[in-house]
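Worked Example 4.2. Consider the chain below.
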Amino acid sequence: MAIGLILRHTEENEPSDPYFKNIHTGILDEAAKWRLDTEVLFRMHDKNKDLDQLSKYGAIILIGQMTDDAIKRIKAYNENVILVDANPTIENCDYICNDFGTRTQKILNYLYDLGHRNIAYIGGNSSVVAMNGKTIMLDRDARAEAYSDWMRIKGLNKFEHLYIDNWSIENGFRLCNQMISELDEMPTAIVVGSDPMALGVYKSLKNHQINIPNDVSIVSFDDVEMTNYLIPSLSSVYMDSSEMGKTAVRLAKDLMIEKAKMPLIITCRSELHLRDSVKKIK
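Applying the procedure from the previous section yields the following structure tokens:
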């Protein structure tokens, strides 16, 4: 039996997103290991989707977040559906997710222990894709929610500075500029939702002659290779997204052999790689 793939990104823009690209690569590598064929059935943003073909496959792996209605329609054609990097609200669904919400709170606890209280967050919007291919924007993602919740629990509401837009270097730069112009007191630390946005934040801080980490500490997510070459080197969260893809194949293989008695939720643990962009407040 073969595994059918439903992908979040188009073929053109997938290479620019190493996180999702590595999930896809992990799926292909693990499937080859078990001599399982894989085939891309369609991309989420495709307007025309041939759902009838789904029943021909032993399992379907869906990379990314679709609406609950879309997931239900897919499962109507094939019960063996595994979602990767998703957090659906429907029951009876197997999915593999990251721990970025929990990791954000651990980062904030670490910064708190270093003396930081005035901590800002710069990040992007989460979104889901409907069956018709349209993107539906959500208010915020797990990292932003975890940040707001943590700041309120710690009684740091007056320091809650949340800046959200699309995930890009340009928006990281623009949002950091906006933050600097709006705030009377510069935060001592910034948590950034992705390394590309962190590149924009670095540029903005340099333009304003704000030193990292002497004036402000920076922690980000993705841990892409280029961040090692920033000055100072960027502290960032690493997630082995290739292993997420491999885990999905192993789960798909098990489902093809024997129907599961209960749905599984697998949370993959990230790692914080600390470098030179974080400093303790004296």
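The longest strand covers residues 38-43. The domain at 100-237 is CATH 3.40.50.2300 (Rossmann fold). Compare this with Example 4.1 before moving on.
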